[in-house]
């Protein structure tokens, strides 16, 4: 069995996490219809949707590479029962931030390992981010600093940059916020022989 690992993503933060952890992998972004996957899960909880998207991304690449272990990952942001995706424009991002102001944002991050047609492992984690009251002046300043870099981030923030200023309190680990439940993933990679146990 191949110990080679493919990351089915182009996410810079996910690649940075794996690099920092010393995981050797190849990056090969998956092209799936995320909305179609979500539509098939009508009524599912956000964590279930994130896991299903992770599996779908990994499966799409695994179908192209026999006997190779593929890692898929996905993140969802929910606030006050409303789901938020990546902002399409700076105005979109500003609207997200105004909605988040003074509220709690739930960030669900999931990962899955697939080989051939079999999902070997999947896991979802949650982080709760308490957004402080945000002034229009701060939002404008933040977007001047961070747009368009945050256009690739669900919810429109990067905690590893000025986005940390959005929050007064955080519950959950930083890896989940960065987009992947890294510690459970590393354990799964050890069990699959990708990492030394």
Notes on the protein architecture:
The protein is about 35% helix and about 25% strand. Strand 1, helix 1 and strand 2 form a beta-alpha-beta unit. It has helices at about 10-20, 35-40, 45-60, 90-100, 135-145, 175-180, 180-190; strands at about 5, 25, 70-80, 80-85, 105-115, 120-130, 165-170. The chain is globular. It has one domain: Alpha-Beta Complex (Maf protein), CATH 3.90.950. The mean pLDDT is about 95. It starts with a strand and ends in a 6-residue tail after the last helix. The chain contains seven helices and seven strands, in the order E-H-E-H-H-E-E-H-E-E-H-E-H-H. With about 200 residues, the protein is of the alpha/beta class. Strands 1, 2, 3, 4, 5, 6 and 7 form a seven-stranded mixed sheet that branches.
In short:
By secondary structure, this protein is of the alpha/beta class. The chain has helices at about 10-20, 35-40, 45-60, 90-100, 135-145, 175-180, 180-190, and strands spanning about 5, 25, 70-80, 80-85, 105-115, 120-130, 165-170.
List the helices and strands and how they pair.
Blueprint: E1 5-7, H1 12-21, E2 26-27, H2 34-39, H3 46-62, E3 69-79, E4 82-84, H4 90-100, E5 104-115, E6 118-131, H5 136-146, E7 167-171, H6 174-178, H7 182-191
Parallel strand pairs: 1-2, 1-3
Antiparallel strand pairs: 3-4, 3-5, 5-6, 6-7
Helix pairs in contact: 4-5
Proportion of residues in β-strands: 25-35%
Instruction: Tell me the series of helices and strands, N- to C-terminal.
Output: EHEHHEEHEEHEHH
Instruction: Just give the CATH class.
Output: Alpha Beta
Cα-atom radius of gyration: 17 Å
Largest sheet: 7 strands, mixed
Count structural domains.
1
């Amino acid at each position: 069995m191949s110990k080679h690992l493919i990351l089915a993503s182009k996410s810079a933060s996910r690649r940075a996490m794996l690099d920092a952890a010393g995981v050797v992998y190849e990056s090969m972004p998956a092209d799936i219809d995320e909305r179609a996957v979500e539509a098939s899960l009508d009524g599912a909880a956000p964590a279930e949707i994130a896991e299903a998207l992770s599996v779908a991304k990994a499966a799409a690449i695994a179908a192209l590479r026999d006997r190779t272990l593929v890692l898929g990952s996905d993140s969802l942001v929910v606030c006050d029962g409303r789901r938020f995706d990546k902002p399409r424009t700076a105005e979109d991002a500003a609207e997200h931030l105004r909605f988040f102001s003074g509220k709690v944002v739930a960030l669900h991050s999931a990962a899955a390992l697939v080989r051939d047609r079999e999902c070997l492992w999947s896991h979802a984690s949650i982080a709760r981010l308490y957004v402080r009251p945000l002034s229009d002046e701060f939002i404008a300043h933040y977007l001047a600093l961070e747009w368009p870099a945050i256009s690739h981030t669900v919810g429109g923030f990067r905690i590893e940059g000025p986005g940390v200023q959005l929050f007064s309190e955080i519950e959950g680990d930083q890896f989940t916020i960065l987009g992947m439940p890294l510690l459970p993933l590393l354990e799964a990679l050890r069990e699959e022989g990708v990492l030394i146990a």
